[in-house]
Write a structure and sequence with these properties.
Strand order of the largest sheet: 5-4-6-7
Strand content: 5-15%
Distance between the termini: 18 Å
Order of helices and strands: EEEHHHEEHHHHEE
Largest sheet: 4 strands, mixed
Mean pLDDT: 87
């Protein structure tokens, strides 16, 4: 990642074996997302993270044989717009306060595609984020946040305000999210793919439910 002549983010990637420079308004972002190197990296991260299977119950151990057999078919369907994400499997886990948090578990194949999308979007958007932001960002973690707090204390700050946006992920407006992404991402195929994930729906107790609002917690799509 570097900056272009006017300060716009410039993304370096590999498409069909060649190193290319991509601006966010180029129409080749989808090619970068489904490039072999990016998809391989996404696969490795999904396997490393592990986790339960989605509605098809396929686990991460079955992912490599599946991708070897259907990888080209998968990338082709993504590029021609025929790929349709599966609904996520909704589960509930207890929170510290005794309440329940809803998680959406995508299929492992969808997790790979979502992770591939996320890797490219992070490369574009991360440099625009606040230096005081540490959540869901590469090379930043809880210890980095603590060090920042310590520096603030050393500089004389004495007060800390804790805020928690209730049900933030559950109330994300799809149209607004797509609008915000569209201000930077001009490859309509990428916007369309993200929109299909947002509207993939959920399976609850074997019943399908539409998802007109919100982003499921539990998969890479929560980072979009």
């Amino acid at each position: 990642m570097s900056e272009g002549p006017l300060g716009a983010p410039t993304l370096m990637g590999i498409i069909e074996g060649a190193l290319v420079t991509v601006q966010p308004d180029d129409d080749v972002l989808l090619d970068l997302i489904v490039s072999r190197d990016n998809m391989n990296l996404a696969y490795k991260r999904v396997v490393r993270n592990g986790g339960a299977g989605g509605v098809d119950r396929m686990g991460v151990k079955a992912l490599l044989p599946y991708l070897r057999a259907h990888g080209e078919e998968l990338t082709s369907s993504i590029k021609d717009g025929s790929y349709r994400p599966n609904p996520v499997r909704r589960v509930e886990i207890p929170k510290d306060d005794g309440k329940m948090r809803q998680l959406g578990i995508p299929t492992v194949v969808d997790r790979v595609v979502q992770q591939a999308i996320s890797q490219v979007l992070i490369s574009i958007y991360d440099i625009t984020f606040s230096g005081s932001s540490f959540g869901f960002r590469p090379h930043r973690g809880a210890h980095d946040a603590l060090r920042k707090v310590q520096r603030d204390v050393d500089e004389g700050y004495r007060y800390c305000v804790s805020l928690d946006l209730e049900k933030f992920f559950d109330t994300v407006n799809h149209s607004k999210l797509v609008e915000v992404l569209g201000r930077t991402i001009k490859d309509g195929r990428v916007i369309s793919l993200i929109n299909r994930y947002l509207n993939a729906g959920v399976m609850v107790g074997g019943m399908f439910e539409e998802t007109p609002l919100g982003v499921p917690q539990g998969g890479p799509s929560a980072q979009f």
